[in-house]
Every structure is written in C-alpha cells, then in structure tokens.
Amino acid sequence: MTEQEPSLADPDGSAPLRRRHFVDLSPLRESPAFARLWIGGAISGIGGQMTIVAVGLHIYDLTQSTLAVALVALFALGPMIVFGLYGGVLADSFDRRTVALVTAIIAWASTAGIAALSWLNVDVVWPLYVLSTVNAVASTVIGSTRQAITPRLLPTRLLPAASALTGISMGVMVTVGPALAGLLVASVGFSWTYTIDVVMFLAAFLGIFTLPRIVPEGERQKAGLESVLFGLRFLKTAPNIRMTFLLDIIAMTFGQPRALFPAVGALLIGGGAVSVGILTAAAAVGTLVSSIFSGRLGHVRQQGRAISQAIIVYGACILGFGIVLGVVALNTAGPAGQSFDQVDMVALVAASLLLAGSGAADNVSAIFRMTILQSSVPDGMRGRLQGIFTVVVAGGPRLGDLYVGVLAVAGALWFPPLVGGLVIMVAVGVIVRMQRTFTRYDALDPTP
Questions:
Q1: How far from each other are the two terminal CA atoms of the chain, in whole angstroms?
Q2: 48 near 177, Cβ under 8 Å?
Q3: I need a labelling partner for 348 at 20 to 30 A (CA). Which of 283, 380, 402, 440 fits?
Q4: Which of 307, 308, 446 is nearest to 375 (CA)?
C-alpha cells in the first residue's frame, strides 16, 4: 500500500506516518480491562519463563542428559492436547473469566509445588515432570481462554495491534525471564528462582479477577466430547485457519532448539547457565523488537502470504544457528568451560543474533495467525478454535524438544537445527504452492 492509502489500522488514512512504524497502543487506552489483563499476563509470564528455564537446568544438573530435559516436553504433550481442546470447550460453555481464574489457581499451585520440592532437596526427577505437566496444561487453558476474551474487549480494527502488544509481552517474558533464570540459578540457586516465580504469578490474578463477566455469545453447547468434535468439524470448513496451524506446527517441530541450550552452554560454546539464559532470551529480543516496530503490520492485507514468508525466514535463521554450532564443534578440541569467562564469545554473539532473527520472524507470523483467527471465527466457536490454536502453539515446541533430544543423542548438537531449518524452508514452500488460496487471504474480507 502507498503512504496515502487507507489502512486496517487507520481506516480514514489520517494517522501520521511516524505512528505507523511503532506499535499501536490504542488497545491499552481504549480498554482498561485489556490493559490490566495484558500487564498481569506479562508480569506473571516473566516468572513462568524463569521456571521453564530453571526446570531444564535443574533436570540437566540432576541427570546430565539433554534427552531428560526434552522429556519434560514429551510428558506434557498428551495432557496439553487433551486439556487444551477441552479448555476451549469450557471457554465456549461458561463465563470465560471464571475459567481463566480457576486455571490460574492451578498453575500457581503447581509452581509453588516445584518450589517446595527444591526447598526440601527432593533430588529426583519425576516430581518435576509431573508438576511441570500440570503447569503446562493449566497455562494452555489460560492462554486459549485469554485470547478468546480479547475480541470481546476490543473492536476488530484493533486486533492486529492487540496481537502486536501480545508479541511485546511475550518478548519481555522470554527475554527477561530466561536471563533472570540464568543469573538467579547461578547466584542464589533453584529454590529462590522458583519462589520468585510464585510471587510474580500473583499479578495474573489481578488482571483476571478484575475482568467483567464474559459469557460466550450465540448458542452455547454443553461442555463435552460432542462440543470438541463440533469444533473440529468447523475446522474442516476453515482452510485458512487450518493452514495457519499446519505451518506453525512445521516451524515449531523442526525449528525449536531450546532443549539443546543446557548442553551447548556446558559442552560447546561454554558459559554454563549464563549462556543458556542469553541464548534463550535472544529469540525473545527479536520478538520484542519486531513488536515495537510493528505499526506497519496493521496495513498488511495479504496476511497469509506474510505468514508463509515469515516462516521461511524463521527456517533460514534456525539453519544458520545449526551452522554456527557446527563450526564451533569442528574447531573445539574438548568440552567448553562452565565459567562465563571461558565462553566462545564470537559463537555466542553469532548464535544469539540468528536466534533473535528467528524470534522476530516467528512473531510476525504469530501476529497474523492470531489476527486471522480472532477476526474470522464466530465468538461462539472462538474458545474451541483458540484451544486448538494454543495446543498447536504450545505443543509444537514440545514436539520440537523431542525431535532435538532424539537427534542430539543420535548425532551431534549442531545436527538437529541444521536439518530442521532446511526442512522448514522446503516444506513451507511446497505446501504454500499446493494451497495458493491461503496466500490470497484478504484481511478486509476475513474468512476462516
């Protein structure tokens, strides 16, 4: 579009150019309820990311096994799929505020349980798997319910901006959270790291508790298997939504190297927990920066084409990350040091920049995927489709953790991201060519 043309973000074409390049803060100004939900989710999310990284480091510390770290994802995957789908049903059957509040209590209690295990010096792995699974399930239901709530708090024209703000909060979460986790684990240990998350999670209750009642519009179905099946049948008639799910599953399954980070920090690049925190935060930096400069994204009409292009860029960045690890492996005689003064700084910077690029590309894809879902799906179906969306978003990376863990055991640390990046680029290119209607999706005429 030209600078003079009307856009999705400013239909009358009157918004100054300087505002178009930066994130639109209108959702925070126009809806205090959305603002509180957004702020509470961001603060609690920082703590949640701290615990995710700390649990990975904790399990690696107990087992010295990358596969053991990846098993956190495997054990959580099945329950996340089941309860993610059923959580969407609950969001379409009951007051969405109540559903979010109850599941937030469960998530908070599971985090408190992990902290208690650490304080009691319970040095066995299976309780960490159990409580991490409970936390992941509750977080999945909260996520799908929160996203189903958003279109009821904001007008349609502000949904792209709301998605960009979600990208900012996610960027802050996974930038600050992992970095804090690395520093806290290295300085005060696992117990205090988990406990800080327990306190920070309280912010989520403020955002949810102050929401108005949000009862689904239209005909409501009884919560049960038939309601889940009805949502899946609706998905069969929604080719654009299906494509967003499929492309994201491919990207997250083959392009999620986070389970490698503890071993990379301990054996390859060096730096131990601090390097793990930096690598984990790098993708979030890309997410954060791309969200801050997301104003132009509100003008994009061919959102399907933008999604496919962003995911191809994502694959290229993951491929580059694998190449960096391969070069380090070829030039390293033995295990790297755990101390940060022994880190391979050139490799750490190069790997971090590529991960930041992957985070930016994934965020652009996420903004458009969320906008397509929220703007094209009827409110009475939104919870179930958001449940499926959340299962895809949360489950894909866990499949990726398993893929990385298995290939890392069978090969080398650089092998999974190198192969995965290639698979993403080729698969997305082929699938988009086979489903050309997706690239012609028009944001001014949203159809599922």
A1: 24
A2: yes
A3: 402
A4: 446
User: What are the pLDDT digits (tens) for 24-73?
Assistant: 888 898 899 999 999 998 899 899 888 988 998 898 888 888 778 878 87
Alpha carbon of 416 to those of 65, 205, 208, 420: distances in Å? 16, 39, 39, 6
Tens of each residue's pLDDT in the chain, 448 residues: 333 333 444 433 444 444 466 778 888 988 999 999 999 988 998 998 889 889 988 988 888 887 788 788 778 777 877 777 777 788 778 888 998 999 999 999 999 999 999 899 888 889 999 999 999 888 888 887 888 888 888 887 788 788 888 878 877 887 788 778 888 988 888 999 999 999 999 988 888 988 888 887 766 656 566 677 777 777 777 888 888 888 988 998 898 888 788 777 777 777 777 778 788 778 878 888 888 887 777 677 788 888 999 999 999 999 999 898 888 878 765 555 555 566 778 888 898 999 999 999 998 898 888 888 888 777 777 777 777 777 777 667 777 777 777 777 766 777 888 889 999 999 998 998 888 788 887 777 767 7
Q: What length is written for the chain?
A: 448
Q: How far apart are CA 69 and CA 266, in angstroms?
A: 14
Q: How far is CA 257 from the centre of its chain?
A: 14
